[in-house]
Design brief:
Number of helices: 12
Structural class: mainly alpha
Order of helices and strands: HHHHHHHHHHHH
Radius of gyration: 18 Å
Distance between the termini: 28 Å
Strand content: under 5%
Oligomer: single chain
Number of strands: 0
Helix content: over 70%
Length: about 260
């Protein structure tokens, strides 16, 4: 399904773009549609698979948080205090992941079924979703009231937002961080929660595309994953800090407009 060159390029794009609120899935899909001449039905499973590489990078980067969550699981199971369970990070992740699957799986099936869509039309649709992502980030940036602890409602809304990120062009980190900011979650906590949410969601998506036979696993798909992981490790700390400091909403909107204009050229 991929050549060596395609695997390397796509892995690098995924590894760099994942940590910025610009839709890494949208970026890799745009490259596959417009540079490597793939259909949307072929490109989307590959774009989802590439997230596995950056997932491994996130696991390494957030290893302390993950160890703490795993260590809390036995106590969480035994705990009979309903309120403490509701306030737990584990509850937040469980609810968000379940809702992501309910929303995201039908969208993946819908998008991969659009084989008849031309590369130009798919590019224009991705452009529209990039503009939506940028506008959402602008709205979130205006929020000033902040809190550190998420509640059940936050997990439900964040899970819905992450589910819609199954569509290429909607930045998973952009939409989840923006949603949490709009829910008054403090910025650094929103970024942390967003990337912790991504780990079970990406694992579930990989299982899903594998079970549905949407992706051919071969040496080149593994090579793409390796480059996504390697460049993810190299860039995660720099770009997460950059995402906190810089406004990427205008980049999303500009790229979205260019993608739409490309349809008419």
């Amino acid at each position: 399904m991929l050549t060596i060159f395609e695997a390397i390029v796509l892995g690098i794009v995924q590894g760099v773009a994942e940590w910025l609120p610009i839709s890494s899935e949208g970026m890799t899909t745009l490259v596959m549609l417009n540079v490597f001449d793939k259909t949307l039905a072929d490109a989307l499973p590959i774009a989802i698979w590439l997230h596995t590489g950056t997932l491994l990078s996130a696991v390494v980067y957030f290893r302390t948080d993950i160890r703490e969550i795993i260590g809390e699981i036995p106590q969480y199971i035994r705990n009979r205090d309903i309120q403490e369970k509701k306030d737990s990070l584990i509850t937040f992740l469980l609810i968000a992941t379940a809702i992501t699957g309910i929303i995201g799986l039908p969208l993946i099936l819908f998008a991969t079924g659009m084989a008849e869509f031309s590369g130009k039309l798919a590019t224009a649709l991705i452009g529209g979703l990039l503009i939506i992502t940028g506008l959402l980030q602008i709205s979130a940036a205006k929020k000033t009231k902040k809190r550190d602890q998420p509640v059940i409602t936050d997990s439900v809304i964040a899970g819905i937002a992450q589910g819609f990120a199954a569509l290429p062009g909607i930045s998973r980190s952009g939409i989840t961080v923006s949603t949490l900011l709009l829910r008054d979650i403090e910025a650094s906590q929103a970024i942390r929660l967003s990337f912790l949410m991504s780990i079970p969601a990406v694992l579930a998506a990989d299982v899903g595309i594998g079970a549905m036979g949407l992706l051919s696993f071969d040496a080149y798909s593994i090579l793409a994953l390796f480059f996504a992981f390697a460049f993810g490790i190299l860039t995660i700390d720099i770009f997460i800090k950059a995402a906190k400091r810089f406004d990427f909403s205008k980049f999303c909107i500009a790229l979205g407009i260019l993608s739409i204009l490309a349809y008419f050229l």
